[in-house]
Design a protein that fits this description.
Layout (H helix, E strand, L loop, with lengths): L2 H14 L1 H6 L1 H4 L2 H10 L6 E5 L5 H6 L5 E6 L2 H13 L5 E5 L12 E7 L8 H11 E13 L4 H14 L9 H10 L2 E14 H6 L5 H12 L3 H7 L2 E3 L2 E16 L3 H7 L1
Parallel strand pairs: 1-2, 1-4, 2-3, 4-5
Antiparallel strand pairs: 5-8, 6-8, 7-8
Helix pairs in contact: 8-11
Protein name: Methyltransferase type 11 domain-containing protein
GO molecular function, one term: S-adenosylmethionine-dependent methyltransferase activity
Pfam families: Methyltransf_11
Length: 269
């Protein structure tokens, strides 16, 4: 699938399921939202950019701590759903911009904070995304990134991505931690903190959130049921009477700082 086709699939997928993503417990809850603020230590005069805002959960969390949050998403209905949710929550310092994560419509060094949470596996060109993050960040600015990641083993990674793609055609690829780290380093984004964790999902709710048909759900389940022992162990698959009950996915959370801030200058003096 070409890059533009992937982006069209993303718009179709998230456009019709916008409200589900606002309400999704996976996206709306989680200690990572509070931890993001703790790690970034935002200041009230900072400007923040939330890329692929989805249901607006990160923007809503950041808003009380900064002067302005710009929330972007490729999908207009998603932005509208996020805006409505934030308005209900009485959050009024968020601006909404329809934008492609790989070609942001902002000037260089416009934001002290950039965030992207559980979205980058939909981006067909991760390198372009990371270049854009670095470009719009001020020197010394912070980038908080969270996404599902694949294992370093290439064959196991290929299987994980096959499962994800079968479940959701708008899925591009889960990169490994090593791949993301190399992209960040190449673009002057220096790792400060990181955390990996296993996220466990109820299989039926997980697969139905994106499925178009019962046939698609069966195809995903069969992939898991017919997986090798190594694949089943990695995904932590649990079954009952020949049906998949739960499985798990690796998630990586990382805080980076853009090279060139005052601290860097002081260290080099």
């Amino acid at each position: 699938m070409k890059n533009e086709e992937i982006k069209q699939a993303v718009q179709a997928q998230f456009g019709k399921n916008a409200e589900q993503y606002v309400q999704s417990k996976t996206h709306a809850k989680g200690c990572d939202l509070e931890l993001m603020v703790e790690w970034m230590q935002p200041r009230e005069n900072w400007r923040a950019l939330d890329i692929a805002t989805g249901g607006g959960h990160v923007a809503r969390t950041l808003a009380p701590h900064v002067s302005l949050v710009v929330a972007t998403d490729l999908t207009r209905p998603m932005l509208m759903a996020a805006s409505a949710a934030n308005e209900t929550a009485l959050v009024n310092n968020v601006m909404y911009v329809q934008a492609d994560a790989e070609s942001l419509p902002f000037l260089d060094e416009s934001f002290e904070i950039v965030t992207c949470r559980i979205a980058a596996h939909h981006f067909p060109d991760p390198a372009a995304f990371v270049r854009e993050v670095s470009r719009v960040l001020t020197p010394g600015g912070v980038f908080l990134f969270i996404d599902n990641v694949s294992p370093e083993d290439s064959s196991l990674s290929a299987f994980i991505n096959e499962v994800e793609k079968t479940r959701d055609p708008s899925h591009a690829r889960c990169l490994s931690v090593g791949e993301w780290h190399a992209l960040f380093e190449a673009n002057g984004l220096i790792l400060q903190k990181q955390r990996e964790r296993k996220k466990r999902f109820e299989f039926l709710a997980w697969v139905q959130r994106t499925s178009e048909s019962s046939e698609q759900e069966v195809n995903v389940e069969n992939l898991l049921l017919n997986a090798t022992d190594e694949q089943k162990e990695y995904l932590g698959i649990t079954t009952n009477e020949g049906r998949v009950m739960t499985h798990q996915i690796d998630e990586w959370m990382v805080l980076c700082k853009k090279r060139g801030g005052q601290e860097d200058d002081d260290n080099q003096a």
